[in-house]
Amino acid sequence: MDSILSLRQVSKTYASGHKALDHVDLDIRRGEIFALLGPNGAGKTTLINIICGIVRPSTGTILVDGHDAIREARPARSKIGLVPQELAVDMFETVNATTRFSRGLFGKAPDRAYTDQLLKDLSLWDKRDAKIMELSGGMKRRVLIAKALSHEPDILFLDEPTAGVDVSLRRDMWKLVLGLRDRGTTIILTTHYIEEAEEMADRVGVINRGKLLLVEEKADLMKKLGKRELDLSLVEPMRAIPPELAEWHLSLEDEGHRLRYTFDAQAERTGIPSLLRKLAELDIGFKDLDTSKSSLEDIFVDIVAHREEGAAA
């Protein structure tokens, strides 16, 4: 699959000396949903702002569908729609006027049928003549998306798009996003709701302290780094784990009523049969057992923690 967005050695160091991005290389495939994950201050918004031409990089090159984002800023930017974290709209303007004006900013001819349908898709049609200042927070967020999509961009950036919105709006927004992807739009999102990335993304990138730590297919990442947990509900609560069980690195949960074993499901030997035999030898009874797999959030936390430990060493 060809790339619609390519970054090479993109860095950003501010006058204060703070390095927000550190030699980022990244290719985004045409038509994919790419989730960029990272803690606050990791560099996610800086990266988006550089691609969108809001911030100038210190080094590096950016190609947006073949256009150099610095030397050919206007055609490159016309390919992109941006839904920022912060509201950036004229509060005294109407929803309809704002959407149509945004389309004109990118040199697009008026298309009333398109903008009307866009407002209907975003459940803004009934509010089309309302001033933005009269809308709820969730409705204002929908207006930002309408503005970003008004010029029919090939790439849509969603920077924490569902932060602070209710569950029903979040569901509507992701339904719209999936529909856009089905029509060929490339979606790049940052989110604190990792379950959204886990459900929707094709690939995942993890960024921390300005460095892109990894980029993986979501399924491959979870298969490679995901762990499973075996929980044993004990017949009798346990105050401490016997030394005879040390090799399994168990943990006690639920005030000693549950014994947890974390293992690699991809390993040739999981250690479960030998653990169960040892429990029988020690006359430790259990009444139930259950297994669960790591979520993308677990994997993300492990990656960031591991890299921070490595940097401190």
UniProtKB/TrEMBL annotation:
The keyword Hydrolase does not apply. Keywords: ATP-binding, Nucleotide-binding, Transport. Pfam families: ABC_tran. Residues 5-234 form the ABC transporter domain. One of its GO terms (molecular function) is ATP binding. It comes from the Bacteria. The keyword Transport applies. CDD domains: ABC_DR_subfamily_A. This is ABC transporter ATP-binding protein. It comes from Sphingomonas rustica.
